[in-house]
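hey so u asked for the seq, here:
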Amino acid sequence: MKRETEKKIILVVFDGLGDEEIPMLNGKTPLDFANTPNLDKKAKNGKLGLLSPVFYGKAPTSEEGHFSLFGYDPGKYELKRGIVTAESVGMDIAEEDVALRGNFATLKGGRIVDRRAGRIKNTRKLVEAINGMEVEGVKIFVKEALGHRVAVLMKGEGLSSAVTNSDSAYNESGFLEKIKPAREGEKEYFTADVLNKFSEQVHEMLKKHPENKGKDLPANYLLLRGPSKKVTLPTFQSRYGISAGCIAGKDLYREIGKMVGMTPLEVEGATGCIDTNIRGKFEKAISADFDFVFVHIKATDTLAEDGNYIGKAEFLEKVDKQIALFDKFEGTLVVTSDHSTCSLLKGHCDRKIPLLVHGKGSDKSERFTEKECEKGELGVIEQVNFLPSLVEKRVL
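ran it, structure tokens below
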């Protein structure tokens, strides 16, 4: 039921929005380089600031960023990618199971040369080859997610989620490592041993798989991260007393919304890719009968991860054209991100996150850029505290 006393909030999340200064863009970030008159108009009539990302490893993850944006501390609730991915693809998860996120990757000469195996799109036959393996009495199930991504679910006795990642982007060293116990314990050593044996067996199978024959970037390794167990969260409505909807083209982000009690809203052509139906997403967000609507836009992150800073700027310009749809929106529009993604690094980075709030007064900023956000009236807000400040207190 919509509350009559408060205005609707729409949260637009440009995944990986913030970036670094790029010499080839005259020292500008993609956001600064892009021609974004509609976002700039919202900045001039709104307030700017920065979010300080919440993360517990080497770099912010998408799940940490989104849960934090919604006011759920991922450290307190042990929210990791494994369980979110497994839930998003509909795996049957028991309380004692351990879930992980997997990436098909390319291993050459003992080194990961591509974490996404050339962004492989069709992994069905590869998944069929490695699904249902048994290692040391533990059954390990693998299910396709989107593109190079898979969900991995361990079923058996004596399992622990307190183990490290093998994915080089999400372990402390930055190199391919064996999985280790994250704390002392028999279950932890056992789980790490099972996963290392599983990884080696998978590698041997994938090396010989006909799908990889003749490929420059064969999907011959499975990187693992985000080990986690089933978790129950307080719902968005029970926390904030308002109804919430979720618009996202990718299963992962819909599932994060569902895990906090948001209602998924369907938009035709919402793909989670560069061709996503941006206009349809924004129109649905404005018309949906909810107090709060979360809108996810993925391609800014994907382009930056590929090092395509020009493409990131061009995509921002494409989205900006549709921002004009909010000119007659009378509620509060928030534009921000889950984390920054640095295009030269080709990965998530710990830079502070641009924040724009329209509908809560103006600090007369000139443009929506990282530098302007540094000077904004909102200052620096810890990511996990932002939404409670906006929704519960209704002040910033």
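The CA atoms of residues 119 and 184 lie 36 Å apart. The first strand starts at residue 9 and ends at 14.
lmk if thats what u needed
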